[in-house]
Design goal:
Distance between the termini: 9 Å
CATH architecture of the domain at 39-252: 3-Layer(aba) Sandwich
Low-confidence stretches: none
Helix content: 25-40%
């Protein structure tokens, strides 16, 4: 097939001869395998696994109201979804049916009023049905679900207050959330509490199943002996309900581990206090003490934890034995032997944490630096795993010059290591490393320094004051700024093609872009013929082609530059249902992280990349790797974890899988997009240390390990400057420090000014550019041709990677 044939001609051809892969049996099996390994067994007092012959009562509308993933760009249109009820029926388990029909009818009434799956009220259980259900079985499974989506947080706060909104008006999710969950959806609603009380009062065995993509209050599970078992099924894509059924029945031995810390109350998380303090900014005062770093470090915080980071039970037992530990050059190498000492086959996750001396900078008590997952081990079988980390991985960034200014360094003292099954229960290694004097690992320079963050947390829970600077105007512009919101949903301009002979070039002497691909001319030689208008055209988004609905880039007809179309992600390739194409819905990103299995993440990435390519699309807007700073973020389902290392390794595997197809991943949102309320204006005020060690670390890992084709800058402001206009962030750190060579694209319809984005190194403005404003900036001397050429060249170089 000719290069770019799919992009230029849009042939409706299967990827592999006569075999179509989109939503194929093989891809659905990959989704199912991922969902199997994502499920976390939270509690088991011996009731699980259940016998297939045992009849069951399902309580809670979530038994049929299954949430496969989150809403917005992270949604996926697939052929079917399997709820827990569906999964149990497929496995031929007898379920009390009248209650299922009752739930279905009640849900339909709520859907007619504008509710969506997961944002529905719990229904009261009719007394006659309860009596029949008690006679039917002594075991009840209570199912709880939650739903969140792009553009709003898990609260009753409305978003994007300042902006004109051209999108069709729909149900306000924050308003609906406030009606369903008066105490917030972190907690059980009054109706859910009543349903759970009914279960405990009427059934001998009560099993909880959580169809949740984030964190909720689990005190009612862990602290109540009447809840005999609990399963965190996450949001497992199209096969999630079947996977949950298989775990409950013992067809699958659970091997998922939590990617977040589950504390008892929302107020236990340090980010909660000022999360909604202002719609204009968020102060990251907890600094590096995010998630388990906070709970394992700050005095008294660990007592608030219900389930620690990395936690998960199994139907079998494992012995993890450290065999050796050594340091070779700058690398730490630990060898462990994992033995299945139980009676059934299963997989185990081994986690390696480091503890650095507190020193002048202050450190988290433990930080994840390596992990691995065994193959499926039969009873009595063993496997040896090797866990490695280097000095850079355990170093800290000094942003105030307490030891070595603007440098990653190792402070003198003893470095300890912990190996185990979760952050709380990891066992201290006999091996320690002693450093006699402070050591600078990497010298850098200050970038993205905050000017309005007044304080940050220290390792003892107190706060230190931070130096303040001048306020930055996020809307500064050399000419009149566009009215916020008027960019929203605008389509790209369609470039006029003059009348010409179809069999001849539009102009004599044109060099075709295909000649660059064939090696006949260089990219620089090709670009010499491009006008300023051509260059400006290249740095803006282009119209949709084929089944695309989130636009493309490239697209200069006369030079043969193809239009590379994009698709939303990350839980599957998002193609609109009116096209007739249904794709595979994979588990949400948090569930993928809960597998702790890099091979599964790569397999999901490769399968998604195949579906992207088969449908003539070039860039999959995934993975999204923002940190779970707060349980309240409405988009956490689309992100991986509270931990940057787990996020980085799992998402890097995803990128590796995607790009094996010679299509692009778009790693997003760069950076600190940890809140959806007023997301296009809110300033994330974060110390340079926390920015580098927590919020940028996963991006750094992926850039250095996998060379993603694209990075997507975020909507929000970072320390006073919009992310897409932040030269320190995009050029200073991403390009100069990490040597990123791909393109940076804005998020869609960002509020950034196009000329400022180009100057920052944000190459491509999506979904559309603003040529007239770029030209005006050039005329006023605010943008030069060299910077424009540099951005256009990176875009063209990326197009050459596609086939």
């Amino acid at each position: 097939m000719q290069k770019w044939a799919r992009l230029l001609y849009q042939p409706s051809l299967p990827l592999y001869k006569d075999k179509r892969v989109t939503s194929s049996k093989e891809h659905i099996e990959i989704s199912k395998n991922a969902a199997d390994e994502a499920i976390v067994l939270l509690k088991n007092n011996g009731i699980l696994p259940l016998s297939k012959e045992k009849p069951l009562v399902l309580l809670g509308k979530a038994a049929v109201d299954y949430v496969k993933g989150g809403g917005g760009s992270g949604d996926v249109y697939c052929e079917y979804i399997h709820s827990l009820y569906d999964g149990l029926k497929i496995r031929e388990v007898k379920v009390y049916e009248p209650l299922m029909e009752y739930y279905k009818e009640g849900l339909q009434e709520q859907f007619k009023k504008g509710c969506v799956p997961g944002m529905t009220k719990e229904l009261p259980i009719p007394s006659n049905m309860l009596t029949e259900a008690k006679n039917f079985s002594d075991t009840a499974i209570v199912v709880i679900n939650r739903f969140s989506g792009e553009g709003w947080d898990r609260s009753d706060k409305e978003g994007d207050y300042e902006d004109f909104n051209p999108w069709p008006a729909g149900q306000s999710m924050p308003k609906l959330s406030g009606e369903i969950f008066p105490d917030g959806d972190f907690y059980l609603s009054p109706e859910e509490k009543e349903m759970i009380k009914t279960a405990k009062d009427n059934f001998k065995n009560v099993i909880a199943v959580l169809n949740v993509g984030g964190v909720i209050d689990c005190r009612w599970i862990e602290e109540d002996s009447k809840i005999t078992a609990a399963v965190y099924m996450g949001q497992g894509g199209m096969e999630g309900g079947l996977s949950a059924a298989d775990v409950l029945l013992g067809n699958v031995c659970p091997s998922g581990r939590l990617a977040d810390t589950f504390a008892g109350k929302l107020e236990d998380y340090p980010s909660t206090e000022n999360y909604h303090e202002s719609i204009d900014y968020v102060d990251y005062t907890e600094d590096i003490y995010v998630g388990y770093r906070y709970f394992s470090t700050i005095p008294g915080a660990d007592s608030k934890v219900i389930y620690p980071f990395g936690y998960g039970l199994s139907f079998t037992d494992f012995e993890v034995k450290e065999l050796s530990a050594a340091k070779k050059d700058d690398e730490f190498i630990f060898t462990v032997k994992v033995t299945n000492t139980g009676k059934v086959a299963g997989k185990e996750v081994v986690q390696l944490y480091a503890s650095a001396p507190n020193g002048k900078l202050g450190k988290a008590a433990r930080s994840l630096i390596s992990f691995d997952k065994t193959k499926e081990l039969k009873a009595g079988e063993s496997q040896i795993l090797t866990l490695t980390a280097n000095e850079y991985a355990i170093s800290s960034y000094d942003d105030l010059g307490k030891v070595a200014d603007a440098s990653y360094l190792l402070e003198k003292g003893e470095y300890s290591f912990y190996i185990g099954k979760n952050v709380r229960d990891a066992v201290k290694s006999e091996y320690t490393w002693n450093l006699s004097e402070d050591k600078v690992v990497k010298e850098l320079s200050h970038k993205v320094v905050p000017s309005e963050l007044k304080k940050r947390m220290l390792s003892d829970g107190s706060f230190e004051e931070l130096p303040l600077g001048e306020h930055k105007d996020k809307n500064e512009c050399i000419f009149e700024k566009m009215q916020p919101g008027t960019e929203e949903a605008t389509a790209p301009l369609v470039k006029e093609i003059p009348r010409h002979y179809y069999t001849q070039p539009m102009r004599e002497g044109i060099k075709k872009f295909s000649e660059v691909a064939e090696g006949k001319i260089t990219l620089d030689e090709f670009m010499e013929q491009l006008s300023t208008d051509d260059l400006i055209h290249l740095v803006g988004g282009q119209p949709n082609t084929g089944v695309s609905n989130v636009f493309g880039f490239g697209n200069i007809y006369e030079y043969g530059v193809p239009n590379a179309a994009t698709a939303d992600g990350p839980a599957g390739v998002r193609i609109m249902p009116e096209t007739g194409v249904r794709t595979t819905a994979f588990p949400c990103s948090t569930s993928i992280a809960c597998t702790w299995n890099k091979e599964i993440a790569e397999a999901v990435g490769f399968a998604g990349g195949e579906e992207l390519k088969e449908n003539n699309l070039s860039v999959w807007l995934t993975p999204a790797i923002n940190i779970h700073r707060s349980p309240m973020c409405g988009r956490n389902f689309e992100y991986y974890s509270e931990d940057p290392y787990l996020t980085g390794k799992m998402a890097a595997a995803m990128v590796r899988g995607i790009q094996r197809n010679h299509v692009g991943a778009s790693v997003k949102h760069f950076a600190c997009n940890n809140k959806e309320t007023n997301r296009k204006h809110s300033d994330s005020r974060v110390s340079e240390r926390a920015l580098r060690e927590i919020y940028l670390k996963a991006f750094e890992m992926i850039v250095k390990e996998e060379e993603p084709y694209t990075i997507m800058s975020s909507y929000n402001v970072v320390n006073g400057l919009r992310a897409s206009e932040n030269k320190d962030l995009i050029t200073g750190i991403l390009r100069d420090e990490w040597n990123f060579g791909g393109i940076v694209t804005s998020d869609w319809w960002t509020r950034g000014e196009h000329y400022k984005e180009i100057n920052a190194g944000n190459d491509l403005k999506m979904a559309t550019g603003f040529p007239e404003r770029v030209k005006k900036a050039m005329e006023m001397g605010a943008l030069d041709t060299d910077m424009l050429k540099l951005c256009a060249k990176r875009i063209l170089a990326t197009l050459l990677k596609f086939d």
